[in-house]
Every structure is written in structure tokens, then in C-alpha cells.
Amino acid sequence: MNVKAMMEITQLPELDNLFVCPSPSDESLAIGAAYQFMHAHLLAQGKNPREVLRPLQNAYLGPALAAAEVRKAVERLAGDGALNIIDNCSPAQTAALLRDGAVIARCAGRSEFGARALGNRSILADPRSPAVVRVINEKIKSRDFWMPFAPTILAQRADDYLANRKNMQAPFMTLAFRTTRLAQTELGAGLHPADHTCRPQLLEAHQNPAYHELVTAFQQLTGVGGVLNTSLNLHGEPIVQSAADAVRVFAKSDLDGLLLDRVLITKKRQHT
Length: 272
Hints:
Layout: H1 3-10, H2 29-44, H3 49-52, H4 67-77, E1 83-86, H5 91-99, E2 104-107, E3 121-125, H6 131-141, E4 150-154, H7 158-161, E5 162-163, E6 178-179, H8 181-186, E7 201-203, H9 209-222, E8 226-231, H10 243-252, E9 257-260, E10 263-267
Parallel strand pairs: 2-9, 4-7
Antiparallel strand pairs: 1-10, 2-3, 3-8, 4-8, 5-6, 9-10
């Protein structure tokens, strides 16, 4: 979990790559045990484990958000005159709200395994805006001011923003990197305020196509290849799992909008 320690390890000249499990804690012991068993099993068969075993391809291993669950949650809100509801909201529509300063929660698909939000149970914002850090901390998550956020970065833009990456993959926010001047301009709200390091999610299209479309739409509007991404939860609570819980967090916080799969719900008092 110490991403700064992982950053120092990645800079060792003899190291070409480093994989850290998306949830490097007790809950991932079963995964490690399975890999260890398969390693021994393959050796016993005369096979090279390096040629067969691969790291996890994604961390979306939790419960899926069912269409019926979304419909039920939206139906309960349909009569609320203080809300706008947009069905089949396009990535460009959501990206435009982010560009204009809105803070949007996204609850879609299968939830992430472990303690990292990777777009499916996330709060998203424009990473260029220093003010958004205070807004999220004070009005939504009730966090201490010094706690840093993290960015989701399109994988093809990684070397624009991360310094001396050595072509390492970082899909799970388990590695930290030093950043370029461009990152400090375009992703500043998602960097550590003391040293401008960041703990990124480098996002490939095949890992999460719908989320990738949203971040790509934001780049098309702004030129910025990433968004600020923090977990969808209130302070002291676990990360949201269900549509009903996402709606509860939306109602109890100053979130501007909630994206349930392709349904966007916004508060009229803030965005009409």
C-alpha cells in the first residue's frame, strides 16, 4: 500500500517491471495462494511458469450493477422536481459537465476489488482545478485537506505526464511516479500537493471501454488526457456498491451529478 516505496523500487536500475496486486492486503492472500499453487503445478509438469502465468488483467471483480437495479433507483427519483434525469447520456455530455466544473459520481458495471476506485465506483472532476480539491474534501468526502487525490490517465498519454516511467504499467493505483511540468499544469488537482508525485490509474480501452470513452471525451473537449478520480463514498464509509447506495450518497452530499450506467442525474439548483 506504500506507493512511495513502490516508486523508489521502480527506479532501481536492475528492475524492468513491477506488479503490485490491486488490493495489496489480507484480502488478496487467496490470489497469491492460487498463483503459488499454479507455479508449483506448472513446474511439476515441466512447464515454465513465466510463459503461462500472467498478472490480473483488471480489478473489476465485484458485484455488477444490474439494469433493473438502475431502473428502480431512477424511478424513485423521477418525481423529484429538483433533479434533471437524462437517459442514455453520452460520454460527451458528462465530459462537458466535468469541463465546466461539475463533480460527478460514476456508478457503473462491476465494482472494483479492493480499496481503489478505478472508474466504476468513482467521483470524477476536472484535474486542472485546484478549487475542486476543497469542494470534494469539504462538501462531499469530509476528508482532511492534506490528503491527496489521484488521476485516471489515458495510457497513451502516460509519458506526457509521468517522468522516468520506464514503460511500466500502472492500472491499479498501486505505483507512484514523479511527474512532468505538463502534468503539474493539467493534472494538478490529482497530484500530491507537497512533491507533485501521483498515484495514477493508467487506463487502456480494453480494461473498461465505457470509462475510457468518458475520459477520451474529456480529452477531446479540453486536451487533457486524464480526470481526477477518487472513491465514491462518504468519509468513514465503505465504497458504494449498489445503485440505491449511490443515490443515498448523492442525496447526502454536494455532488453535482450521479451517473448510473448511462443515466445521468443532476441537481437543478447547480446545473439546469
